[in-house]
Design brief:
GNAT_dom; 5 helices; Acyl_CoA_acyltransferase; GNAT family N-acetyltransferase; Aminopeptidase; globular; 7 strands; alpha+beta
């Protein structure tokens, strides 16, 4: 059984940071390289970075499967848009419809917040994720190259899904 639990404590942020370290190293190293993975984990997925994001309005959630933490997600409302900042599942738990349940949760949360659209960004070379988002009704609307400091950029597509 999948459950999604709001993360509000330093302990929950630590759990998320530990999962991020595993997931990012196994998934993103081949896409963006070790140096950028290390940089992004520190800048965006450390306990302090997560706490700062929560302070600025992001909601973080752990995703549990049979009472075991197997992933996490992060969202932020901006007027009538819900931005999906992060959704990650540990590799051994992919293909068990956990991500699908998480996306249902995100859509439900968007409707609670009276949002009419979901948005996300995804690395242009993250082919499987792009295909999964397209199957869920997202469309590519923009290409983006964002300087994130220290000589690194995020080379992404922005994708949208209308909820009306």
């Amino acid at each position: 059984m999948t459950s999604i639990i709001r993360a509000t404590t330093p302990e929950a942020f630590q759990q998320i940071a530990q999962m991020a370290n595993i997931i990012w190293r196994e998934h993103y190293t081949s896409i963006i390289g070790n140096a950028q993975v290390d940089y992004m984990l520190g800048k965006f997925q450390s306990v302090d970075a997560i706490a700062e994001q929560v302070e600025s309005g992001y909601e973080y959630y752990t995703i549990d499967f049979n009472d075991e933490p197997v992933g996490y997600l992060s969202i932020k409302q901006d007027e009538d848009v819900l931005f999906l900042s992060k959704i990650y599942i540990l590799k051994p738990f992919r293909g068990k419809k956990i991500g699908q349940k998480a996306m249902q949760f995100i859509e439900s949360r968007a409707r609670e917040l009276e949002c009419t659209q979901l948005q996300l960004t995804v690395n242009k070379n993250n082919t499987n994720s792009i295909l999964a988002y397209e199957r869920l009704g997202f469309e590519k609307v923009e290409t983006m190259v964002i300087d994130i400091g220290s000589g690194f950029v995020m080379d992404d597509f922005r994708m949208e899904k209308n909820l009306s």
